[in-house]
Amino acid sequence: MNRDWIATARTLSEALPYLQRYSGAIVVVKFGGNAMGDATAMAEFARDIVLMKQVGMNPVVVHGGGPMINEMLDKLGIKSEFIRGKRVTDKNTVEVVEMVLTGLVNKRIVQAIMDEGGRAVGLSGKDDDLMVAEADGPELGFVGKPVEMNVQVLRDLFSAGIIPVVAPVATGMDMLETFNVNGDTAAGAIAGALRADRLLLLTDVPGVKDASGEVVTQLSPDQVRAMIADGSIAGGMIPKTETALEALEKGVRAVVILDGRLPNASLLELFTEHGAGSIIREPR
Ligand SMILES: Nc1ncnc2c1ncn2[C@@H]1O[C@H](COP(=O)(O)OP(=O)(O)O)[C@@H](O)[C@H]1O
Ligand SMILES: CC(=O)N[C@@H](CCC(=O)OP(=O)(O)O)C(=O)O
């Protein structure tokens, strides 16, 4: 008997308690632009999501696409800068953001999930008023912070056997403006409104690193606040960890920041005893 086959069978058998624990669980997965990588990485990600649905979980994909927005802004000769991990967004920029996220990136992910045999529907915060936002701060322009969530549409899609894929673009309170919402912030707001069992933030680093560059596998909210204050958490990791703290306050059970480029990163986290990346939750 081939040893690899035996190992595969054992892995499946060992996954049973996790499959039982997560049956019916809502898992929000943020797929960052830097984690998307090439077509193979995209297909592997899609396969993991389809598997989650197949075993009875309710995954929701919330995606980013920062590098793809940068590429399009470059082509159009529009300059862009970030403040504390968020893109300063003027009128021209928000149009590009909406086109790239709800068009290009969203449909690529929907297509990848369909290609793996799942059913996916793409939507943005504008669809069925899923995410209503107001300006995050005057210096950021059309960057939104979610103020009202209407997640019924996601529950409807769950019951229909469909995987929702959400682009982080929101409508304003007046229903006229368009806001660019950071992908992590959007994922946290959706996870909070759904009181999700897990929020997975897939990125391009193995987890949250301390000042010496080591990944910290377990973090409490207090530890995260201290690391933001002393500067060991910086740049794009700020919205990610702030999102984690807010999501926990709203009743999400745990938030995991992990490397989406690692093959089967989400499955490793959910279905094995090893876990992956940094898990942030209240100390037990
Ligand atoms: N303490 C830290 N641990 C890990 N990454 C950090 C930390 N501080 C800052 N970073 C940066 O945050 C980045 C992840 O954020 P971002 O680039 O916005 O990812 P994504 O596009 O996946 O949302 C990492 O690539 C890293 O450069
Ligand atoms: C306000 C803000 O910063 N919005 C992000 C939205 C996309 C995103 O979050 O993409 P990643 O997850 O790939 O970083 C942006 O304009 O880049």
TrEMBL record:
Enzyme class: transferase
InterPro entries in the cross-refs: AceGlu_kinase-like_sf, AcgluKinase_fam, ArgB, Asp/Glu/Uridylate_kinase, Glu/AcGlu_kinase, NAGK-C
Record's subcellular location: Cytoplasm
Residues at which substrate binds: 65-66, 87, 180
GO MF assignments: acetylglutamate kinase activity; ATP binding
Site (Transition state stabilizer): 30, 240
Cross-referenced NCBIfam families: argB
Alphabetized HAMAP family for the sequence: ArgB
Protein's name according to its UniProt entry: Acetylglutamate kinase
Classification of source organism: Bacteria, Pseudomonadati, Pseudomonadota, Alphaproteobacteria, Rhodobacterales
Gene this chain is encoded by: argB
